[in-house]
Design a protein that fits this description.
This protein is of the alpha+beta class. The chain has five helices and eight strands, in the order ββαβββββαβααα.
Length: 195
Amino acid sequence: MNVTLEGFANHAGTTAMNNRRDALLAAAKFIEAINRIVTSVPGRQVGTVGKIQAFPGAPNVIPGKVVLTLELRDLDAAKIQMLYQKIRAEADQIAQASKVTFDFKDINTNIPAPTDPRIRAIIDSSAKELGLTTKQMPSGAGHDAQDMARLGPVGMIFIPSIGGISHSPKEFSRPQDIENGANVLLHSLLALDRN
């Protein structure tokens, strides 16, 4: 979602610290709160502020407006909602203390989509039949499977990436691992076709 903080832009040299309504300072407190809240609960959930813009964006002007992104991910929609409510409550406290306002706008909502247990088992079995090791793991990244899960059962096959780097220009997988993944896919599809 996009989160907009509104304070008051004023000259940095002539506005005393106790008279400021600094949207960027409030945003910094908010970002720290997101991290604290998300890490305070056991689990694999993540919270990210990946983009931030301060306005007017001049060295000698107190930022009167900040727009940032907030993304929460987990396999459990209820946990995402619980974290969001805690974050909103913290935003209310920051707003009051900093004399700024917060506005939250949804830009995209992806519903968590666990893969189908039957398909997971077939993928696991296909890999083992090919003499490969397996590890069942959740995907923290968004994939087409997330949307396709609304239409029917889905599964996913992951292959090793050097250094565990994923969704980055630095991602690299060995050709043999790619071939193994393609063979697991082929054998899984053949097994699904037989069932």
